[in-house]
Amino acid sequence: MLPSEEKENKRQEKRFLQRRFTICVIIIAVIFSGFAIRLFVWQIVEGASYKKLATTSTAYTVTTDATRGEILDCNGKGLAVNRTSYRIIIDKLFMKPEKLDSTILSLIKLMNTGGEKWIDALPIKLTSDGKYKFKEGMADEIKTLKSSDYLDLKASDSAEKCIELLTARYELENFKNKTDLRNLISVHYNMELNAYSNSTPYVFAKKISSDMVAIISENMQGISGVDIQTFLTRSSPTGSLAPHIIGALGSITQEEYEAKAKEGKDYGFNDSIGKFGVESALEDELKGIGGERLVQKDAEGNVTKVASSVEAKPGHTVYLTLDSNLQKVANNALEKQITAARKHGETEALTKGKNSGEDCETGAVVMLDVRDFSVLAAASYPSYNLNKYANYDDYYVALSKDKNAPLYDRAFIGSFAPGSVYKPCVACAALQEGIINSATTFECTKKYTFYPTNPVACMGYHGYISLNPALAQSCNCYFAETGRRLGINTMYLYAEKFGLGEKTGLEVNEGTGILAGRDSATWQEGNTVQAAIGQSDNAFTPVQLAAYTASIANNGTRLKTHIVKEVRDYERKKILFKYNRKKPEELNTIGVSKSNLDLVQEGMRSVVTSQSGTANSIFGNYKVPVAAKTGTAENSGSDHAVFICYAPYDKPRVAIAVVIEHGKYGQYSMGVAKELLNAYFK
What we know:
Oligomer: single chain
Mean pLDDT: 90
CATH architecture of the largest domain: 3-Layer(aba) Sandwich
CATH superfamily of the largest domain: DD-peptidase/beta-lactamase superfamily
Radius of gyration: 36 Å
Structural class: alpha+beta
């Protein structure tokens, strides 16, 4: 290429670049001119209107309820389900402040006329002589009211002082009628407790009838801020079936709210939360996630726009391992046998004196599936109705004052001296440690006196006796001597492996029990012989005894006890969790050889088959082969009647533990187990 041509090409390339640069500058200028013009319109031409809108319009995000998941038994029968109910709410977004107090009084009047209850949280009542006094049974509520978060009063300050301060706090000085004043204070106080605000409406009354819905709708027309909503309430189709296990809901407390907030969980002040049982243990699965709606108001407080922004998500459905039919049998059998034991005791006491079983009023039973240690039934007597309990009214107060403590879960939490049902554990330990063998005999003289300060009485005179008949006839002398030679340290190490004095793994709250020697504050050598026959400090929960029995039946493998079968989505279609029955969770092995376990199992079978066996009268002719151990546990009052068993003996399916407090005679604890076995094998 010639030099002149090269120069010409460079000039053309330069002119091209200059034109492209000019075009880009023009395009950018046009774009920025458009922005400038639009900003001029917004700020200068329409600026006043936008400024007014910004200063007179406010948006609020209001949370909507989430549907709580349901609780079902192993066959899908409802244990805690949702029912549609009505409630009255006061919505601050729609309520004119100057109308609030008159609206509250109108609502209270309508509710009282209809004979229905509104939420009255104030622990102060107005007496018939016109004085303010604290309500009984509300010590915690009174403490909260006087706390630094609210009135900051001394514990000794009167109810009158509280009313005086609350009147000023809520600017209610114009209300002279004491009844109206007290009721207004109650609502305002509960509003404060529940963070009543533009984003949190206040629930004035729950579970109102359809008749009251009609009355409120008719009489509150034209009054904005009062709304009747449908919502889902918790209901138990069979309220008395398993209340201790299912549990109940209650209003979330400040402490619970703060704890959940730290966990990153989204709760509102009006939310309910599981207080105990499965409702509490599986709260995260059951709760669901609330939705949101956006509400916009103008300067005059008028709502200009309402729109849903986030849809609520329901909680999950929880299936338990409980069988409703077996649970019903357990409840009925306990009541029947405890009543029979008490009547028998009352008759016996006429001739034999006190502690004959006349004080028998309570007890518990647990039935496990040996194959995976799932809870098939767990009953505590006396019991209560979950639907009535949920109201926290006079029924709840009566339950809390009942001397027999029906609210106490004896099956999972109660700890009781096991008596002779502890002997199979001692036998396993002694056999494995070489202390005894199947032929070892000890002499029973009806009273064991190796430790004169800790004598052990036997229920019979057995002479020289070996392991099998000693288990069958429950010889205290044999096991006292076995325990002495074994020693307390070795004894409780094997008991630990059986899960005695240890939690079983239940998802719900359970007791740990007490293991003699390990958990004892002081110990003397003589105490060992008492521990070996299930006395001393030994105290175990019925569910521990059932798991211990199942471990013997399971040839020494202890599995994790559980009550949750599976978790599904709310529609019950998608399985989110399912307990693997083919691969149950193993906690430990007992460390006892198969041959030694066989000897103990044979001894427990002899408890039933031997003519002198302590369970022969009840199970001797039973069609299903049963292995068992009876126990009589000494305590204050009449002896406890304790019984453990598993069946079938040759291919174990179920294990049962029964404790009848002050039942005295074993026939009654055995009677409970027999009715459950009848129902299971029917």
